[in-house]
Structures are given as structure tokens and as C-alpha cells.
Amino acid sequence: MSYQAEKELALRIVKQAAKLCQRVQQTQGGKAVKKADTSPVTVADFGAQAILCQGLMEAFPDDPVIGEEDATLLQQPGLEGVRRQIIEQVQQNIPSATPDNVINWINWGNGQVAQRYWTLDPIDGTKGFIRGDQYAVALALVEEGEVKLGVLACPAFPREEAKKGVIFLAIRGQGSTEIPLEGGTSQKINVDPSSTFEQLYRIESVESVHSDRQVQTAIDRRLGLTYTAKQMDSLAKYAAIARGDAHFYTRVPLPQFQDKKENIWDHAAGVIIVEEAGGKVTDLEGKPLYFSVGPKLSHNYGVLATNGTIHSQVLAAIQREK
Ligand code: AMP
Ligand code: MG
User: How remote is the CA of residue 210 from the centroid of ligand 1, in Å?
Assistant: First the structure.
């Protein structure tokens, strides 16, 4: 399958959602409210989810959508101002949008895993967005548990001559590409297949509680890494591996978070972008990531993404240190 219609729609709505995020960042910086789990969420998270879901609902009404955000929070007293700002932002993209439309679009992302579904994270790396660092708008199409298409918009991703903003796109069997966010020609990207560990870069989250750094240090020593790991928020880490800027990325659950499973939207788009660029992604036991069980990767333990060449060596080192 060529997925031409899916590709055109996904690129268009992800770009629009990224523009909304940039606009919110310029006008209100990193202003955020807290979710029930105490993680931050912004006007841009909700606005971008509304834009993405509206496009998917219109073009593929039969496809369920599983997104990170839910509009329930916005019914709380004291958040009327936030709700108004979200509606105003969405109306800049879709002038006819009513307040009810916007809430319904956000909640369109409450779908369930099916034979074919979309999963999205309107802003992955919200903490990076708030800090003014990396973040990503992520959208993926899954069929029969396999990711078939993935798009990542990374508005702060560095390009040549101090320019910023890249869209990464992968379609199963068609490779991975990068396109400047403001438009231009698309270019194929590939992993760097090097396997000399002394010259390889690992990439990790900026947030230290998202992976066990103590275990990681032992793994790095066993592999003979010499370079300090690069750090980056969000799914942009997958893009860094896919274009050869880094060589592997692990998520090792901390002892206190052993039962906290990864969300499908935090990985799906990144997985296909790495795989189609020649890399490999599994969990820490070498199993494929199972995208057909629900909104969490509940049948997996941690995540490992590599350039492919070094995958089995890194897995072996992890097995010994876990
Ligand atoms: P990153 O930008 O790589 O640090 O990852 C951001 C994602 O980490 C967020 O989308 C959260 O869903 C997820 N997250 C939050 N807390 C944890 C945790 N304790 N362990 C692993 N991932 C987490
Ligand atoms: Mg996320």
C-alpha cells in the first residue's frame, strides 16, 4: 500500500498543529497547568490535539484515534481562561470552530486500539516545550499491530545555518525522509551504521527520572562508550538516531516505576522513522514493541532503539546489567 491519502493528510495536520504550538510559545511562553498526575499541560497541547483530531475525523471517520489529552480537565473551575485561549488558538486555524466543536475534537482522541487506528501526542516533551528546548508533534498510523506511517514535527530541531524546524516522515517500505518545517524538498535519511563503541553516541531524556541512569552507566561501561550521552526531550531522540546524529537510545524503567508502562503515542511514530532509516527498535528483552494491546506498551519492558548494527551487542549488555 502506498498510503498516499494518509500521508498527505498527516503532513498537513501535523504542520498546522506545529504552527499552533509555535504561535502559543511566542505569545505565552511556557505557561502551563497541572494534570492529575502533576505533569504539565499547555494551551498548545490541547489546541494541537484538536487540530489533529479534526483532520483525522473528517478524512478517516471510521479510524479510532488515541491521543494523549482529554478535555475533562478543562471543565474544572478556574480553567475558563485556558479553555477560551485554546478555542481562540484553534479558531486561528479553523475560523468556523465553535467551543463545543473544539472540546469534541479533543475528545475524539479517546478512541481504542483496533485493527487499524491512529495514535498521537500533540506535544511530546511538554517539559522541553516549556523550557524552550526540543518537543515533537507526533502522529502514527497502526494496522495489525504494526506501525505503517509516522510523522514527527520537531519545530526546534536544528538544521543548517542555524535554521530550525524539521518534519520527519516514514512509510512502511518507503524509507524515512526529512522536510524543512516551513516547506522545501524532502531528503532521505539513514542511520549511521558505525559499530565502534568508542566513537558512538547514546542519546537520552533530559528528565533524569524517565530512565535509570545508574543501570545505564554500567551498560555504557560494559560497551566501552567514551563519549558523554547527548540529551534531548521527546520523540526527537528517534529522529536523531534515524539521521545518524546518535546511535542508540534506551528507556530503562527505574525501580520505583517498574509498573509504569510506556504510552503508545510516545513511541509509535519514532519507531517507524528509525526502522525505515535502517535502524532497529525492540524492548529491553529484544521483543518487538506490541502496538495492538492497548494505549500502553503493557507487554513490553523498556525500549531500545539503535542503528541496527549494534542492536544485539547493546541487548546483551543490558541483559547482564538489569
Ligand atoms: P522524554 O522527553 O524522553 O523525557 O519523555 C517524555 C515522556 O516521558 C512523556 O511523554 C511521558 O509520557 C513520559 N514519562 C513520564 N514519566 C515517566 C517515567 N517515570 N518513566 C518513563 N517515562 C515517563
Ligand atoms: Mg508524550
Answer: 5
